[in-house]
Design goal:
The complex is a heterodimer of chains A (about 260) and B (about 210).
Chain A lengths: L6 H7 L6 H13 L1 H21 L9 H16 L1 H4 L2 H15 L1 H24 L10 E2 L3 E2 L9 E6 L10 E6 L1 H10 L7 E7 L4 E8 L8 E6 L4 E3 L3 H8 L17
Antiparallel strand pairs in A: 1-2, 2-8, 3-4, 4-5, 5-6, 6-7, 7-8
Chain B lengths: L18 H15 L3 H23 L2 H17 L11 H26 L16 H19 L3 H12 L4 H7 L4 H26 L1
Helix pairs in contact in B: 1-2, 2-3, 2-4, 3-4, 5-8, 6-8, 7-8
The chains are: A alpha+beta (about 260), B mainly alpha (about 210).
Chain lengths: ~260, ~210
């Protein structure tokens, strides 16, 4: 006799595994359908046989002695903890265990870290940009205006220069990171930028020297700013090469550039 | 990171593991985390039979079950700090036992495929009838049922073992298997139908 309920549905029904509404439907159907009732009874029978046989305690389950041996082996293995755990797991354990033990302290530290980080962010935002020292080229021979150069290292002022105009003052600035390296090594690294600022009562004009051995013969390029962009000028090179005490630079005139 | 979810007490142990027990285990866990190996040994002592028993039902072999239990407690020690101390440890252990047994079962399957090793179930059970003849008959039936059970697809076999042999609820099985209740129901229903067919064939053979 074939039942009209699927056997899978009946297999769930007999063990109360169907959702209540579906179970009610199957129950009322079974009352009216002898084929399904018989199929359900057969499944019930096989289920109770299956459970009776396999739920029985296993006779040769490990003895007390073998369990004790397993425990001892395990505890010995655990004594080698440093070899067993990777550093990530050890860190994770220390953090989680520490957090459980000292929740308040951890919470306080977390709050402090957040506050400090936000304050540091604020301070950094408020600091002047002191390290704008990257040469930006427009084409091959045009150098962009060295933004923020007045926040660089101020090397010194002079009244005269090779092409000095009467009444002008010359301020010299150097990019900070290369200057720090120069102080450490005594050599100007590639990327060093010097700004010579000519100030008179009406105007400000710039000359810039940039060290880039791969770009300029002799290592230095000299730029003259008539406008916003500096044009490469070859005329500065011979004088700097001949008179600059250290690598084209007039270190002899500025105490900040002299060896300590 | 492995997430430990332990949101229920198993129905089989619900009456044994009450709130004070959970607190007791939590204190053992905390001591074990502080390096107290005696406390960890107490945890093992408390759950080793349950773990070995489930492993035996899933693997059918005593030696493998003991290896599985050792691996389960090693993992327990390794990841003890991830346990939510407000919940019972038992579902977590059951979940690990199932995973470890799966791995061992797969390795064993590869070994069988390679060496054609015989997979004799080696777990005779205690006498239940007191009649030696009946004991032998029951043992034969048990062996055949185990064989049929081992022939089921892995997921069905684990689901029916947890639901019908271990007596866990569908929700608990779903939690242990990281699965949905409807998936578990579907696996269990298929497994029950397969087991019925195996039992029918067994009875047919006896006639």
């Amino acid at each position: 006799m074939n039942s009209c309920c699927s056997r899978k549905t009946l297999a769930l029904f007999i063990e109360d595994d169907l959702p209540a509404a579906q179970a009610d439907k199957v129950r009322s159907h079974i009352r009216a359908c002898s084929a399904c009732e018989e199929a359900a009874q057969q499944l019930e029978k096989s289920q109770s046989f299956f459970k009776a046989r396999l739920r029985t305690p296993v006779h040769n389950a490990p003895s007390r002695q073998s369990l004790a041996a397993m425990r001892q082996a395990l505890l010995l293995q655990i004594q080698n903890e440093p070899h067993m755990f990777g550093w990530t797991l050890r860190l994770e354990r220390a953090l989680l265990t520490g957090f459980r033990k000292h929740r308040i302290a951890f919470a306080a530290v977390a709050v402090l870290v957040i506050i400090s980080a936000s304050m540091l962010g604020q301070i950094r935002r408020d600091l002047p940009q002191t390290s704008v020292a990257v040469a930006a080229f427009d084409g091959n021979e045009v150098l962009s205006w060295p933004e923020g150069y007045r926040n660089w290292v101020f090397v010194g002022s002079r009244k005269g220069h090779g092409d000095a105009e009467p009444g002008s003052l010359y301020n010299v600035f150097v990019s900070p990171a290369p200057y720090a390296e120069y102080r450490r090594t005594g050599k100007f690294p590639n990327g060093t930028i010097f700004v010579l600022e000519r100030v008179n009562k009406d105007s400000v004009a710039l000359k810039v020297s940039l060290k880039d051995s791969s770009r300029f013969p002799g290592g230095w390029g000299f730029f003259d700013y008539a406008e916003k962009n500096g044009r490469l000028r070859g005329s500065c090179q011979p004088c700097h090469e001949e008179n600059g005490e250290t690598d084209h630079v007039f270190t002899q005139y500025y105490s900040l550039l002299r060896p300590l | 990171m492995m997430v430990v979810r332990t949101t229920f007490l198993t129905s089989a142990t619900r009456e044994h593991e009450s709130k004070p027990d959970i607190l007791d285990v939590a204190s053992l866990v905390q001591r074990a985390l502080s390096g107290d190996s005696a406390a960890f040994e107490s945890i093992i002592l408390r759950y080793e039979r349950r773990v070995v028993s489930l492993a035996m039902k899933l693997l059918g072999k005593g030696d493998d079950a003991q290896d599985a239990a050792q691996e389960v407690f090693l993992r327990t020690y390794k990841y003890l700090h991830r346990l939510n101390l407000e919940k019972s440890i038992e579902p977590w252990l059951m979940q690990m036992t199932v995973n470890v047994c799966r791995n061992i079962g797969r390795k064993r399957q590869r070994r069988l495929n390679t060496f054609l090793e015989s997979e004799a179930a080696d777990a005779p059970t205690a006498s239940t009838s007191g009649d030696p003849y009946m004991d032998v008959v029951e043992e034969q039936e048990r062996q055949m049922l185990r064989k049929a059970l081992n022939g089921l697809p892995e997921k069905e076999r684990i689901a029916i073992t947890l639901r019908d042999i271990e007596g866990l609820s569908t929700a608990e099985v779903a939690e242990i298997l990281n699965s949905s209740e409807s998936t578990v129901r579907s696996q269990v229903s298929r497994a029950r139908v397969h087991m019925k067919e195996a039992i029918d064939a067994m009875m047919e053979g006896k006639r």
